[in-house]
Design goal:
Blueprint (H helix, E strand, L loop, with lengths): L10 H5 L9 H9 L2 H10 L6 H17 L4 H12 L3 E3 L5 E3 L3 H19 L9 H17 L11 H14 L5 H6 L14 H28 L3 H6 L6 H20 L2 H4 L2 H9 L2
Antiparallel strand pairs: 1-2
Length: 278
């Protein structure tokens, strides 16, 4: 039998399609590519440089299917594994990498839990309590099964996860070249090419003025939404002043999004799934 997506009454059902999740994508991606094996694969095989907006849209849509896809969730997991099957090679330092190596594939998924957990204390009204944290992690394991990740390749519970996260962050991760690119405030990022045509035209015309402020904001949010332990281990500077600005920004976004009706608060696939749920 195909693995089942997380339950409709669970935490992921309520938060995965929420607009606030979009703010966490850069931090999640950076935590992934801080693993040298993942960075090597992304460097050689990803289109994040040539089609950053398209890649972002496809990633968001894929994640939505894991949670809201119902019977199609497992099919999306199989599609992703097929897509990554031929991603392998040798990194510049001579280290071999393979996208579907169990440790590598599991970290792509496991790293997101730490970002999500950290974000609850910023973008949502309160952090999760211990029981809710365990419940969320149980859902995260279930989501991993959709992606073809065996339970044996993941820590069994949230307590073991914290130990695993500390070990990976302090022994395996580093600020790779790809990770540095994500924090570059002068990157040659093209203008957004998705959305209504009038908006695309306006952004293309204004992009010479908007590009650097956008990149500075992206770098600020990327570092800010990283779990503090990862931020410290990667040597990324952070100050009390930046933390205050992040909290103010996050509180404002959290209040605004919470006031929106579901048709504006949730992404399309999530909105349709929630509307169709009994």
């Amino acid at each position: 039998m195909d693995p089942l997506p997380p339950p409709r009454d669970g935490i992921l059902w309520n938060v995965t399609g929420d607009l606030r999740m979009l703010l966490l994508l850069p931090a999640s991606f950076l935590l992934q590519v801080a693993d040298p094996a993942i960075a090597a694969g992304v460097d050689r095989h990803s289109v994040f440089r040539t089609d950053p907006w398209g890649r972002g849209v496809r990633s968001v849509e894929s994640v939505q299917r894991w949670v809201y896809g119902g019977a199609d969730a497992a099919a999306e997991g199989r599609r992703l594994r097929r897509l990554h099957r031929d991603i392998h090679g040798t990194a510049p330092d001579g280290t071999p990498y393979r996208a579907l190596d169990p440790d590598t594939w599991a970290w792509v998924h496991a790293s997101g839990f730490a970002v999500q957990l950290h974000a609850f204390g910023l973008l949502w009204p309160r952090p999760l309590d211990p029981a809710e944290t365990e419940a969320l992690y149980a859902e995260w394991l279930r989501l991993g099964r959709v992606l073809g990740i065996h339970d044996r390749d993941m820590p069994p519970d949230a307590t073991a996860y914290r130990e695993h996260f500390h070990h990976v962050v302090t022994t395996r991760l580093r600020l790779t070249g790809v990770a540095r690119e994500l924090l570059d405030t002068d990157a040659a990022l093209p203008a957004p090419d998705r959305g209504p045509r009038p908006l695309r035209i306006a952004l293309r015309l204004l992009w010479p003025l908007l590009r650097r402020p956008f990149l500075r904001l992206r770098a600020f949010l990327t570092v800010g939404y990283l779990p503090p332990e990862a931020r410290t281990a990667l040597g990324l500077p952070w100050t009390p002043g930046r933390q205050r600005r992040l909290r103010l920004f996050s509180r404002a976004v959290g209040v605004l999004v919470a006031l929106l009706p579901d048709r504006l608060r949730y992404l399309p696939l999530a909105r349709r799934a929630r509307a169709a749920a009994p």
